[in-house]
Amino acid sequence: MYRVPKIKVVEVLTLSPLQSFNLCNYLAEDLKNNKSRIVMSDNRDNDTLTSVDNSIGRLPDHLLIEIFIRVPVSEWAQISCVKKHWASLFLGESLWHAAIMRTFPSASQAKRWPGPIPRGLSKRRFAALYVSKHIVALDDEIDEIVGHTYLFLKEQLELSTLPPPSGILHGTIIDQFISCGKSREVAHELASQIWLAVLDNLEENWHTFLVLKRLALEEDVFLPFPYSRSIKVQWRVFEKLFLDFRDCFDHADFYDQEVCTLPVSASVALRVAMESVALNFVNATLNWVTLALDAPAARAVVFGVHISGHLFVEVLLLVVILFLLSQKSYKPPKRPLTKKEIDELCDEWVPESLIPPITEEMQSEPPVLESAAGPHAIVNGKEVVNFASANYLGLIGHEKLLDSCTSALEKYGVGSCGPRQFYGTIDVHLDCEARIANFLGTTDSILYSYGLSTMFSAIPCFCKKGDIIVVDEGVHWGIQNGLYLSRSTIVYFKHNDMESLEKTLEKITAKNQRAKKLRRYIVVEAVYQNSGQIAPLDKIIKLKEKYRFRVLLDESNSIGVLGHTGRGLTEYCRVPIEKIDIVTASLGHALATEGGFCTGSARVVDHQRLSSSGYVFSASLPPYLASAAITAIDVLEQNPDLTSKLKENIAILWKGLSDVQGLSVASNPESPIVFLQLKKSTGSTKGDLQLLEDLANRALEEESVFVVVSRRSTLDKCPLPVGIRMFVSAAHSESDLLKACISLKKVAAVVLKDHIRP
Amino acid sequence: MITIPYLTALSTYFSYGLLFAFGQFRDFFRKIFDWWQASNLQGYAPICLGLEDFYIRRLYLRIQDCFGRPIASAPDAWFDVVERYSNDNNKTLKRTEKISRCLNLGSYNYLGFAAADEYCTPRVIDSLNRFSASTCSTRVDGGTTTLHKELEECVANFVGKPAAVVFGMGYVTNSAILPVIIGKGGLIISDSLNHNSIVNGARGSGATIRVFQHNTPPHLEKVLREHIAEGQPRTHRPWKKIIVVVEGIYSMEGEICKLPEIVAICKKYKAYVYLDEAHSIGAVGKTGRGVCELLGVDTADVDIMMGTFTKSFGSCGGYIAGSKELIQYLKYTCPAHLYATSISPPAAQQIISSIKVILGEDGSSRGAQKLSKIRENSNFFRSELQKMGFEVLGDNDSPVMPIMLYNPAKIPAFSRECLKQNVAVVTVAFPATPLLLARARICISASHTKEDLLKALEVISQVGDMVGIKYFPAEPMKQLQHQHQQPGKDTIKSE
């Protein structure tokens, strides 16, 4: 048995502060140790009671208080039971005041206490501080208000039989915080914590159940907007109801609660989406929704249909979707121009002039011939040597041609007065077509009424949008226009460069998987009108067969010229004509007539007879020209020396022109077009053209040699350099050719003098 | 606007449907047979597209003999049609030596210059001997002879414009000129029934193309207003220039352009007028100067006048007439001038001579006679056809008169039956016309005599009854009215 030393009151009263502190500690320790005894010995053990009484029973109040506050709070209730005097101490102000001073030394002692919730006496303050520290767990700073509001809320919910609506309670709390200098945001956060703490600490009894039920039924009014955290609290209410008080529900009650929960869950989904505050909260909510909805008692039956919880959600979502769909989308109102506005616009509009202003270069007039354009022609009353006409075989003025034309003119008149389909087909047309096919060794051919229209009608006939055409960049305008009108995909390769062609073909075939299904063509000229180059057909054929392309060949300047018998490039390169799918040519060069033809397989020709616009929609070739073409081919076949004579002439001219100052021969040695190019360009096409034209004019005027410059239309996309073009004819005599060479050298030396030097 | 009787439209659709179905049926079997044979394409895509090919194989070939009939003489009032036969159901036609002399109602030989002419032909042969058949050169190189110069002056003078440039082909004239005068950022407003050469030229130009309802000036105005207000598509920049393209006489409709209204609208909206007088130059107007003369439009109001020499002048080629600057610019840059062989000298001579005849510069009144003859002939023939109950399109004074056939079966029937009775007519079907609106086209010439016309009328009436194309009832009452209204016809009768 432990004995407490007896201390006289007088002694205690005279003790120094340090001594009294130690004493108090000692006594408190003693009291703590004897606590159980104190409690238990209430009635039975007078001895113990007396002993305690003996030791600290007669101590003055302030010392007692000092002792009590050193004892843990949980034991105070028991201590207060020991003596009546002690109990009154616990009811008094001073003990609690001292307790606050000791336990919460940082607690404010300010006299002013704003806000609707009373601060109360020290006992209440102590309780509040205690709550702040332990329940709400505000560790760093002990805030009295939090504790007070907690107590207030708890009292309101627990004590009153009919607590005021949550909105009012909540408002009071918020007001309290705000009047104590908290920001709105902090106030909301704290209020939410308090609500949750209070809800957690409510006693589990019938009264609490009723209170919670009431709160749950408040729905929208519950902690009203703009308080954003009400959901969390509301869910705690539901949580408690459905978990802790599940047994208190009857069926109707449960159902009511569930209905209340639903709108909340919907609004939860919406608000969460908007605020992106807490994903985890959503998860918790969803867990809750599932839990709440799948509760077995939530099943209801309407008209025999089981209404499970998710059906409500689905119906609700459906309603929302329908609502959103029924809303009109925003369209800016259309305001068409009024009549007056259009009038004004029409008045304001100023068109460009139909043509650009005429400059000096546009005014040049070509020389006018006073005779036929044979090898010798009369210009300005003077006889000149003519290198401007593509009269390769010298058939201009040929007697047989004139005779056949004359008889045709007498028989058929001049024009045919109609397209081929509508009585514009005259027997000579058919004869001519057969003659050409027969001459070239094809099955059939088709006559066009103009050389230029041949290519630009034939190409769109076989190439449509999406087809691929690989074409030499130096082709003449008729082909360019045909390509444009066909709307096909056009890929250019470098002029007469077979490596470039192969690369292009390779690229197209490799890159485009669909290329196999498209029509693919290579378009080349036999003798390029723009450069005098000859296309290497044998190589082209190899490439064509390798990559499966079709070949369109324009033989305008090679029919009657190349090959032993003048059958063109195919004969020259020893390629069977069947390998070329489509051959076009103008009759206006070697054959000395007009028009053009296209030849190939019967299918190629027949297809054009209905699809080629230049054939279908144009009047046919004047019959006398067709008959001239027949005769020209006859003459050519009967005189094979014409081509060899032409070849000789080309060689003479080529040799004679090889050393002209400032000019170089850029054409193929066998091409009937001898193309002279400036060795050094002036830098611009316009400048080159000016220089060359000067040269040509002087050659005509001073030397009576008629040569021409390759002029370009503004529509022509050909990138090749310009130059002087000389069309050699079999009818030129050797002296003509030599004269031309000497004259050109003379003129070039004068004209290009300034150009060569610097 | 052509209004098709409901029943006719239905039966026409039915006929085409039947042809199409049978064609597909035959194609199906062809595919099966082709399947046995190995494909000979060897990695090439077929050169002709399926549906185009289908039209030719299954529809066109059946009536191929009605088109492209060869002739063995000049296309004068009467000509020799070469008979053809086929051993393989019309797939290929072979010429025979046999000819039949037929009345020519198909050629555009409006003034009768197609045949050898007492004034023109000797001069043509002279120039052939002097200048040969071709220059083998372009106009800017060695292709300009004194004849070409003379021709251009002559045409400019005839048309009533300060200058002109000529080309060797009418089709090329249209399709090469439009890209020169208008390009990207420009707008071409074209009549919906313009000739293919204009369509191709417009496409080649890169300009935006819009159409207005055939020969409907109010719609043209609407289109113009709309597009000026709207500007270029997407960028809405103002147009650089607007060209309205119309034809003098529409060759498939026989209608005369409502030029005065169109010119007035174009003036109001500052659009340029491009007039294609392919069929009207030489054929209409008091002195043969085309629709401008006929309708009293000042040629100064038409910015670009285009025409061809194929029709009235019996030659070939086309011209553009306009201001001196325009022609100078065209000569500087037009590809057809720079790259194409110049017009054949004899053909040029034919034009010069025929213009001289028309203007009476040959010292005779033959030109005036021809002009009044074609007018009388046309109006007489048109009114007679209408009286018989044919559905004839076109305006008075126009030498072109289409007769509506509609049903596809009536196309070969009409053509073959007429030919049997030695009257050669032209029938036109899809794709030259809309599918439903197949027609026969008659072109009247000044060289037709009254007897010729009466015979033609008799045959056409008879065949028309047989084929069933008199869609309107014949009205004897109408006949009386017409006699009073049309003095032209009275003179024919009094001859």
How is this structure best described in words?
The complex is a heterodimer of chains A (758) and B (495). Chain A is of the alpha/beta class. Chain A has 33 helices and 16 strands. Chain B has helices at 6-36, 50-60, 120-131, 146-159, 170-181, 196-205, 217-230, 259-268, 291-295, 324-333, 335-339, 345-359, 366-388, 410-420, 450-467, 476-485, 487-494; strands spanning 78-85, 94-104, 163-167, 187-191, 208-212, 242-247, 272-276, 304-308, 318-322, 400-404, 423-424, 426-428, 439-443. Chain B has a 7-stranded mixed beta sheet, with helices on both faces. A 3-stranded mixed beta sheet of chain B has the order 1-2-11. A 3-stranded antiparallel beta sheet of chain B has the order 10-13-12, with helices on one face. Classes of the chains: A alpha/beta (758), B alpha/beta (495). At the A-B interface, helix 18, helix 19, helix 20, helix 21 and helix 22 of A face helix 2, strand 1, helix 3, helix 4 and helix 5 of B. Chain B: It is a single-pass membrane protein. Chain B: Pathway: Lipid metabolism; sphingolipid metabolism; Sphingolipid metabolism. Chain B: It holds the Pfam family Aminotran_1_2. Chain B: Its EC number is 2.3.1.50.
